[in-house]
Amino acid sequence: MPDRGGGPTGPRIRAGRPTRGVRTLLMTLGVLAVLGMAFTMFAGFWTDWLWYRSVHYSSVFTTTLWTKIGLFFVFGLLMAVAVGLNIWIAHRLRPPLSAMSMEQQSLDRYRMGIAPYKKWLLLAVTALVGLIAGASAAGQWRLWLMWVNSVPFHQKDPQFHLDVSFYAFDLPWYRFLLGFGFAAAILSLIAAALTHYLYGGLRLTSPGARATAAATGHLSVLLGIFVALKAVAYWLDRYGLAVKSSDFKATGNWTGLRYVDANAYLPAKTILFCIAVICALLFFATLWRRTWQLPVIGFGLMVLSAILIGGLYPAIVQKFQVQPNEQAKEAPYVQKNLKATREAYGIDDAKVTEYSGQSSTKDTTKLRDDANDAASIRIMDPNIVSPTFQQLQQMKNYYAFPTNLDVDRYSAKDGKNGKDQDTVIGLRELNLDGIPKNNWINDHFRYTHGYGVVAAKGTAADDQGQPVFTESDMPSTGDLGTYEQRIYYGEKTTTYSIVGGPQQEIDYTDNNGEKTTSYQGGSGVNLDNPINRAAYAVAFNEPQILYSGAIGKGSRILYNRTPKERVEAVAPWLTIDGDAYPAVVKGRIQWIVDAYTTSNGYPYSSRTTLGDTTADSLTAANNNRAVVAQQNQVNYIRNSVKATVDAYTGEVKLYQWDTQDPVLKTWMKAFPGTVQPRSAISGDLMAHLRYPQDLFKVQRELLTRYHVTDAQTFLTGSEVWQVPDDPTNKSGSAVPPYYLSMKMPDQTQQAFSLSTTFTPNGRDSLSAFMTVDSEAGSGDYGKIRILKLPTSTTVDGPKQVQSQFNSEQDIAAAIRLLKGGDSDIEYGNLLTVPLDGGLIYVEPVYVRGGGLKYPLLRKVLVTYEGRTAFENTLDAALDKVFGTTASTTPPPDTGTTKPPASANPTVQQALSDAQKAFDAGQQALQNPNGPDWTEYDKAQKDLKAALKRAADAEAKAGKSGTGSKS
Questions:
Q1: Arithmetic mean of pLDDT, 339-363
Q2: CB contact set of 97 (below 8 Å; sequence gap of 6+)
Q3: Collapsed DSSP state (helix, strand, coil) of residue 252
C-alpha cells in the first residue's frame, strides 16, 4: 500500500498550499480586480474630460488638473524627502553597538527583524507621508492660482498700509506654506526620534547619557526649525489681526483690529517673534555646544512669554484700559470697520433718506391718481401661482413647472408704446414622474425635454381670478414671438438623456398623434466611440449604455443639465446665486445665472455666512433656491459675472459684469479666455438682466447695522434693525425680497426694483424701507435707496399689517365665507410701496379648494394709513381706500348690491332677472361643500347682463320722455 505521508513510494503533499490551478485563478481575479479599479478611475477622468471638451471649457479642466498634479507631486515629494532624509540621517548617526543594557537588548529584536527590509520600510514610510501631504496640497489649488495670478486692489489697509491683495491672495498661501512646514518639521522630528531610539541614539532607561552627541545635534536642528517656523507664525499673526474674527460685545461679529489688538496683541506678537528667533538660534547652537541646557531654557522662556505677553497682558489692557471707557477707545477702530465693511459689500453708496411715514396730502383723489404711478403693483405672486400654471398650462403630465416661478420684464403687444410690464414666467420642463410608463428607453431616449414658455401679466387677473396669459398653449404662442421651444436644459432636468440617435424623441401629442423630433443642438458627448460608451456605462452604473441597440450613429449623451450646475462646473471659482431664471432672447430661451466672486480676506470687513444670510421663507420651502457657495464665510462679495445657459444647446457663456473687481481679474488671468468682456452682452440680453437676489439679501443683512456711518451710534446699538419674518409664512424665516416696478420719492418714473422692509431690533413696527434699482440698462442700476422712518412715531410693519388684516371683523367674516367647505386661503406677497410720505400695503388673497386644486385670485387687501379695503380687484380696493376717510372697513363686496325698483316694465323684468342672478350667486357662495366658483361666476355674468339691459332700457325711456327715474 502506498505511503500517503510522502515516503519513497508516494508523492509528498504539502498541507495548506494551494494548487497551481487555484493560484492561477487567484492571480487572474487579482489582475481583473486591479484592471477594474483602474478602468473605474479612468472612466471618471475620461468622462469629465469629454464633458468639459463638449462645452468648450477644456482649459478649465486641464488648468485645474495640472495644478492639482503639480501641487501633489511638489509637496508630496518635499514631505517624503524631508521625512525620508531625516530617517536616513538618524540611521547614519546611530552609535556603534557595545555592551547593551536590558533596554537595548529588547530593541535588538526589532532591529534584527526590520534589518532585511530597511530600504522597503523607508520607501513605504516616505511614500505614505508623501501621498497624504500631496493629496492635502492638491486640494489647495485655488490658493495657489490666486497667489500666482494675483492682481492689486489698489486699496490699502489702515493699519499696515499693505494692498488688500496681500490679505486676499498672499496671506492665505503663506499660511498654507507655514502649516505644511510645521507638518514636515513635526513628522521629521517624530521619525528621527524613533529612529534614534531604535538604534540607541536615545535612551530612556539605560545608564549614562540619555542621548548621543549626534542625536542631540540632529534633533536640536529639527527643533530649531520648528521654533523658527513659530517665529514666522508670530510675524504673520501680526497681519492676521487685520482679518481676524472675534466676538465684540458691542457689535457682535467683528473683523479687524480693536484697541487691545493694536496696543497689546500687536506688540506682543512682535516681541514673541524676537524671542522665537533667539530661541531657534540657541537650538541651532547645540551643533557646537552639544547640550540642550540653553535651548531648553530659551524654549521655556518663549512658552512663558506666550502666556504672559500674548495672553495675560492683553487681558489686563482690556480690563483696565478699554472697559472703563470702551466707546472712546474703540471708536477709531469701529470707524475703520464701518468703512471697510461698506466698501467690501458694495453698500458704501447706499442713500439713506428720512421719510415721515405719514401723508400730508388731504386730497384723496390725487392720492388715488398717485397710487397708479407709484408702482405697477403685482398681484400675481410667482411663489403662489405655479399650481395654477400647472393646472391650466401643463398640457401633458410629462411636463411640469418649477415650484417658484420668476418675474421678468416684457413688452406687451397691447401696451401703450410697447411699455415693459412685470411678467410672471415659467417653463414647461420635463417631468419623468408624469410619463405614461417608466422604463429605460422612455426615461432616457423618448422623453428628453420640456416644451415652451408660459407667461402672464403680473399686475392683472381675469374675472375668474386666473392669470392673464401673454404666452400660452401648446406650442406656446403670444407676445414672445417665434423662438426655439424645446428645453433640454432646465432646473428640473436632473437625469441624463441620450439623443440624436435612432430613437425619436417626443415633443408632445395632439389629436393627430405624437409630434416627434431628433436633437440637433450639437451639445453632449458623442457615443459612437465604444470606449466612450464603456466609460459612461461605468460612470453612470448603467451597463445598457454599453450594448443597447437604441444607441447608434449620432447618439449623444446629455448630462449636468441644470443651469446652476453647468455654470458651477465651468467656473468652479464662482459662487452661484440661488435663483436662475429664464428669458427669451433673440429667438432662444436663455437661463440667466448670476455669479459672485468672494473673499474671506478683506481687512477690517466683518464676515457673513452666505448660507444663513441668504436663507428666507422661499429657500426654507425649496432647497433649489439656496446659494451654491464655494466659500461660505466671506467678507467681500461682488456680482462680477452674468452667465447664460442656452435651454436647447446647453451652451454656457460667462460675461464680465464688474469690470473693476480684482478677484475676477485674478481668476481671468488663471483661466484666460473663459470670461467674455461686458461689451459682448447684447442689448436684447441686457434688457433681461437684473440685480441678483442673494447679493441683495447679503447687503440688506449687513445694512441692519451698517446703515450708520458714525462709530458712536454704531457702538450704542440704538439704530440696529432686523429683517422681519415673512408674515404670510409659518416657517419663521425671513421675508424674501420682491421684484416690483415702482417709483421711489426721488425718482420721476417707475424702475424695476428689488425691495424689502426693516423693523427695529426686537419690535414689529417699521423702521426702514429699502430698494435697489434692478434695471441693468439704466444708469442707476445697483443704486441702493433706504427710506428711514422716524423713531418718534410708530409706523406699522408687515407683521402688524398682516395682524390687522386678520383681525378686521368684516375681513375675517369674508375670509370665513371664502373658506367655506374645504377651501383654503393662501396669502400672496405683502408688497410695500411708498406713496406721498406714507406707505401703502397690498396683498393678494388666493382661494384653493372646493373642487379646485389650484389657487385663484379672489380678493385684494389694501391698507394705507389706517384705511383698509378687501375687494375683488386691486382697482376696487384702491378706490375704496382713497374714496373714503373712514378708518374702518366697509362690509366686504360680494359682487354687487340688490337692484333698485323701477316703474318701467322692461326695467322691472331686467331687475327681476338681476335679483335672481344675485340670489343664485349668494347661494353658490354658501354651498355646504364650499363655494361653487363656477356657478358664482355664471351668476355674476347673468347679473351683469341683466343690469346692462336695465340701464339700456332706462336710457332709451329717458330719451323718449316716457321713462321714470329709479
A1: 90
A2: 104, 200
A3: strand
Across 220-248, average pLDDT: 92
The reply to whether 481 and 527 lie within a common domain is yes
Question: Which of 177, 210, 243 is where one domain is finished?
Answer: 210
Beta bridge partners of 869: 862
Q: Are residues 869 and 721 in the same domain?
A: yes
Residues 191 and 319 in one domain: no
Query: Taking the CA atoms of the chain, what radius of gyration do you get in angstroms?
Result: 37
- How confident is the model at residue 105, as a pLDDT? 64
Count of CB atoms situated within 10 Å of the CB of 530: 10
654 and 783 share a domain? Answer: no
What is the Cα–Cα distance from 919 to 936, expressed in whole angstroms? 10
What is the C-alpha to C-alpha distance for residues 47 and 38, in angstroms, rounded to an integer? Answer: 14
The identity of residue 589, as a single letter, is I
Domain membership flag for residue 915? yes
Q: Retrieve residue 324's grid coordinates.
A: 472703563
Domain boundary among 520, 540, 561: 561
For residue 642, the SS3 value is strand
CA–CA gap between residue 758 and residue 735 (Å, rounded) = 10
Same-domain pairing of 340 and 361 = no
What is the pLDDT averaged over residues 337-356? 94
Q: How confident is the model at residue 960 (pLDDT cuts 50, 70, 90)?
A: very low
Of 466, 316, 516, 350, give the one whose Cα is nearest residue 846. 466
Nearest to 506 by CA among 493, 495, 519: 519
Q: What's the rounded mean pLDDT across residues 792-815?
A: 86
How far is residue 386's CA from residue 406's CA, in Å, rounded to a whole number?
A: 10
pLDDT value of residue 3 = 46
The tally of domains found in the chain comes to 6
Domain containing 52 equals 43-210
| Mean per-residue pLDDT over the chain, rounded | 86
Question: 663 CB contacts (<8 Å, ≥6 apart)?
Answer: 168, 597, 598, 599, 636, 638, 640
pLDDT in tens, 268-308: 999 999 999 999 998 888 877 767 777 788 888 888 888 88
Do the domain assignments include residue 683?
Answer: yes
pLDDT higher for 116 or 459?
Answer: 459
Amino acid identity, position 192: A
Rounded to whole angstroms, how far apart are CA atoms 364 and 840? 13
CA distance 781 to 775: 6
704 in a structural domain? no
**CA gap 642, 692 in Å, rounded:** 10
The predicted model scores a pTM of: 0.85
Task: For residue 826, give the nearest of 384, 319, 250, 234 by alpha carbon.
Answer: 384
Rounded CA-CA distance 279/127 in Å is 33
Beta strand 652-656 with 636-646 is antiparallel
CB 604 within 8 A of CB 255: yes
Least confident of 323-337, 599-613, 941-955: 941-955
513 within domain boundaries: yes
